[in-house]
Amino acid sequence: MNKSDIKLIIIVIFIISIFLIIMKITSKEGNTATVYYEDKIILTIDLTKDKEYTVKGYLGDVVLEVKNNKIRVKEENSYNHICSKEGYISESGKSLICLPNKIIIKIDGKSEIDGVVY
User: Fold this and answer.
1) Which of 30, 46, 73, 101 has the greatest CB tally within 10 Å of its CB?
2) pLDDT tens-place string over residues 23-43
3) CA 87 → CA 18, 50, 65, 78, 81, distances in Å?
């Protein structure tokens, strides 16, 4: 390796570092989540307060847990408990979809995504 190769490697690492810092700064967490049942808003949740919520789903009660500005489906009644295995979400534009219970949880706020196809 000569000096020009080392300079090139340093420049590439610098550019990648700046790109990662900008991505980290611009990714924003939403402060509220909206819960839908059959395309109707049934609940708006403040993600800054740690709490559990219970909503009625198609197959029974669905327990939502808010913790550290994140939300997840904690308990629900579906065949393989797929909804509760999805885990936490916190970034705006993300959603949890529990089809057996007809529940959708969306994080509100500005999203980095240009469009979503359903």
Assistant:
1) 73
2) 776 655 568 899 999 989 999
3) 30, 16, 10, 16, 12
